[in-house]
Amino acid sequence: MLDQPFSRRHGYEPLPEAMRLEHLSREFRIQIWNLIRSSLIAIESHAPGLTFFKGDAKRFLERVLGQLTETPEDEVNTDYERTMAFVKGVVLKRPFFSVLSLLEIVCNDDASWEPFAGQVHDLFEHHAAPYRFDISLRPFHFIPRGSKEQGEAIQQAVDTLRQARMDGASAHLRKAAEAMNGGRYADSVANSIHAVESVACLIDSKPAKTLGPALKSLKDRGVLNHEALARGFAALYGYSSDEQGIRHALLDRNEANVGLDEAMFMYGACASFAAYLVSKHRQINE
Question: Each residue of 192-241: pLDDT tens digit?
Fold first, then answer.
């Protein structure tokens, strides 16, 4: 039995979760539902053979579901089974914006739900979701981590590497995405850098073990003829290689001082730069 789906084995896995705007994975939706379900269970009432919502809990649901569905509050059905099924359906089956709207409405209902808002914030951060929940000031709201256009440009760069049969670079980017999704941001940055090294060394007639010498050789051969661009990426590479950077940090302590934002930036920068090198190499050899 195969332990990975076709898409992952052959490099067709989509972008990291944090870059996939307008998307919430089913696995993440399940985690959201579990969090909401726990909170609803905490406010339910019981009688022999019966579970229901009453009092403040009933009014809370009337306000939340009324706003979500644009229904007068006095017409909202708060039957326990029906309410739980409806909210679960919103989280697991409705478009992503319905899920985010539900969470915003719940968290902004009143101050008693601020602890829940904190849990939502932490869940989205831990999962490296494509949206950040800003709870610094009321009303709490979701903001995207990037733009859809950025995601499409990076996906195009990844596709360029795959089509050019740059298998090593594709594998490193795949590992970078998996590390980012798993919250291992230093590992993600290191693998993003490895992807560029892989391309640079493959197209260099005198392959080097690190990116610095490879970049110089590519520049001398005319593959990389933009001085400012070469200097810029050399500086980024230095960020990952010096004593305060990613590689030494991975050797000297458990994790480097990098987070999701740095991992996202380096993934996009490295994917784009690797695709650029492939394109320039093709031009020279045509």
Answer: 888 888 888 877 756 555 667 777 777 777 777 777 777 777 776 665 55
**Residue where the block lists tokens 């690190």:** 210
Residues with Cβ within 8 Å of 107's Cβ and at least 6 positions away in sequence, in order, are 113, 114, 116, 117, 120, 133, 135, 140
Asked if 129 and 17 touch (Cβ cutoff 8 Å), the reply is: yes
Q: Locate CATH 1.20.120 in the chain.
A: 148-285
Q: Which of 168, 167, 164 is nearest to 156 (CA)?
A: 164
Q: Give the burial string for 185-212 (b: 16+ CB within 10 Å, else e).
A: bbbbbbbbbbbbbbbbbbbbeeeeeebe
Residue 141 — φ and ψ, nearest 5°? -155, 160
CA 155 to CA 196: how far, in whole Å? 16
First-last CA distance in the chain: 43
Structure tokens belonging to residue 45: 């009432």
3-state secondary structure of 87: helix
In which band, very low, low, confident or very high, does the pLDDT at 69 lie, cut at 50, 70 and 90?
very high
The pTM for the full model equals 0.65
Q: Which residues make beta-bridge pairs with 141?
A: 134
Pairing label, strands 141-144, 50-52: unpaired
Q: If one looks up domain 148-285 in CATH, what number appears?
A: 1.20.120
Side chain identity, residue 252: D
